[in-house]
Amino acid sequence: MQQLLASSRSAVMVNGIPGPWKRCRRGLLQGDALSPYLFLLVADVLQRLIKADDNMKAPVQYCNM
Length: 65
What we know:
alpha+beta, two-stranded antiparallel ribbon, two-stranded antiparallel sheet, about 10% strand, Reverse transcriptase domain-containing protein
């Protein structure tokens, strides 16, 4: 994962001409194909941690009827 993020570069198009290449130093770019998979991976781990914790309770919902 680190190698993928460290090796990415991007350029901004100005009037149809790409500008100078810039290295992306951290994070994923918007629209990156890896982004949804990374989100699912983190969400799955978070869900497992919450289910494993006996002290974690569902939020209380109040209804004014």
